[in-house]
Structure formats: structure tokens, C-alpha cells
Task: structure prediction
Amino acid sequence: MNNRFFSLSILALSMFTATAGADDTAGDRRAKGEATIAKLSGGAGQPVLNALRQDFPVLADGIVDYSLGDVWSRGVLDDRTRQLAAVAAFAAQGNLTVLKIHAGYALRLGATEEELKEIVYLTTVTAGFPRAIDAAQALREVFAAPRADRAPR
Result:
């Protein structure tokens, strides 16, 4: 595992308890996080998160409470823009599993395949051709997968 990614992950998990406002209870954060994942997934839930709940409940709670409840639920960026930014970040990191999840959300929220392809082209500048090629292959899988919100290819 990349040490920088591990350090950032630990920082994020520690922040999820430190960022609750005085008027935010843990239940409010959890409810906002659950509502956010329902909105992003179209009510389908998130299989990776559900699997984490089985063996790593503290990690799953951190994702729901902090990542989804505190950060992803903010209203500064619209959901579509937030997903495009996430896809770009995960492409640059080479985190293809999570890139595919967020690319699917982006498409469901109205982003186009052309916009996602543009992110791959930008990745050549920010992270290099190998990361861009990997991201392109991951997106090809997302584009080929059947989705309920579009006609079959």
C-alpha cells in the first residue's frame, strides 16, 4: 500500500470524529451519510461499503459519517461536479477500483462518457501516461457495463 495514501487515509479517519460541529450529533452525520450514498447510488446502496461493514465496521462508519456525511453532502459543489473531481483524483492516484465506482455515479448523475474521457486525457498531464492508460481501461469497463439509466449498447 502506498505510504502517502495510508497516511491520508488515517488522517481522514481521525478527522471524521474531530469535524462534527457542536450541533451535529453522530446520528445526524450517519443519517446525512446514508442519504448521500442513497442519492449517489440511486438507492442501490454501495456493495463495497456494505462488505466493509461486515469485517471493518469502524472503517465503514468513518466513510459514512465523515466522507459521506460531512464532506460529500456539502452543497458547495453539485453532485455531478463532485463526482468528476473524484474520478480525476482517483485516476491520478491509480485507484481504479474506486474510480470505477465514482465513474458510475458520475454517469448516473448526468456526466457523459466524453467528459470522463477528457479526464483521462488530463491525467496524462497530472499523473502520466501509465496512470491515464490504466484509467482508460477502467473506464472502458464502466462504459461496457449495463446501467439501468441508459439503453443497452
Q: What stands out?
A: The chain has eight helices and no strands. Residues 26-74 form one domain. The two ends are 37 Å apart (CA to CA). Residues 3-18 form the longest helix (16 residues).
